[in-house]
């Protein structure tokens, strides 16, 4: 594919199917940090960009990821059906599992008490965030996508709730990073039971899914929506 190290991380994820998994494996922040170039991100992470590009080039070539061609109205449908549905089901399961594992294993692994607290905090962070998107922002985007005259929103520009959602994404990212650091990258202890293992595997999967979720919003949906609104009112 002859990828350039000067491409933005967000561009690479939208260009190369499966690229998010390669970047994720190296801890490269392509969601909230998606506007970094690969070479800058690798420099900050002390990684060789040539090696990362080689891994990306080894991926099977194919069409762009399925979310890339979607219009803003269709993309919010995709986000709700794929990522919101996943989190609505998975967050309660993870919190219950963290509570169970901490109750059994915290005497040998005291960090599990804090792990449970972080899982509770993540659920308390993400569930209201998704509600605001589903009840406020996404309906605005659907209205904007189908409007035949300039829409009027109670909050003024759609950029206002978008900026709030992006700030909340930063907070979510900080919680995910705290979970990763506390668990040493979800390294499963030798004495872990099946529930312990399921918890760590579930958290790792939730982290990866949420990073991709935030990428689709921050780097694909939100810029497209702001551009769409500006077509109605260039001064916005």
Mean pLDDT: 93
* Overall geometric form: globular
- What order do the helices and strands follow? HHHHHHHH
Roughly how many Å apart are the termini?
Answer: 38 Å
- The number of domains is 2
User: Any low-confidence stretches, pLDDT <50, length ≥5?
Assistant: none
What is the helix fraction of residues, given as a range?
A: 55-70%
Number of helices: 8
Q: Helix/strand/pairing class, anyone?
A: mainly alpha
Rg, rounded, reads 19 Å
Main sheet characteristics:
none
Strands, total number = 0
Into which percentage range does the β-strand content fall? Answer: under 5%
Characterise this structure.
This protein is an all-alpha fold. The protein folds into two domains: 9-57, no CATH class; 72-232, no CATH class. It contains eight helices and no strands. The chain has helices spanning 9-15, 19-25, 38-45, 49-57, 72-105, 111-146, 159-182, 194-232. Helix 5 packs antiparallel against helix 6, helix 5 (72-105) runs antiparallel to helix 8 and helix 6 (111-146) runs antiparallel to helix 7. The radius of gyration is 19 Å and the shape is globular. The model has no long low-confidence stretch (mean pLDDT 93).
């Amino acid at each position: 594919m002859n990828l350039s190290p000067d491409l933005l991380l967000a561009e690479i994820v939208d260009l190369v199917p499966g690229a998010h998994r390669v970047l994720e494996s190296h801890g490269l922040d392509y969601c909230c940090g998606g506007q970094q170039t690969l070479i800058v991100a690798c420099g900050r992470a002390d990684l060789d960009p040539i090696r990362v590009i080689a891994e990306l080039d080894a991926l099977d070539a194919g069409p762009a990821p399925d979310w890339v061609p979607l219009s803003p109205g269709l993309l919010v449908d995709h986000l709700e059906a794929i990522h919101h549905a996943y989190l609505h089901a998975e967050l309660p399961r993870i919190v219950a599992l963290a509570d169970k594992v901490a109750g059994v294993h915290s005497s040998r692994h005291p960090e599990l008490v804090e792990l449970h607290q972080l899982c509770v905090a993540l659920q308390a962070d993400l569930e209201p965030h998704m509600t605001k998107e589903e009840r406020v922002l996404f309906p605005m985007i659907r209205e904007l996508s189908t409007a035949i005259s300039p829409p009027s929103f109670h909050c003024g520009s759609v950029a206002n709730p978008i900026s709030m959602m992006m700030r909340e994404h930063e907070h979510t990212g900080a919680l995910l990073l705290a979970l990763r650091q506390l668990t040493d990258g979800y390294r499963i202890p030798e004495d872990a039971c099946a529930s312990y293992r399921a918890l760590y595997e579930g958290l790792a999967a939730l982290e990866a899914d949420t990073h991709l979720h935030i990428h689709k919003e921050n780097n694909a949906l939100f810029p497209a929506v702001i551009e769409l609104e500006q077509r109605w009112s260039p001064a916005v």
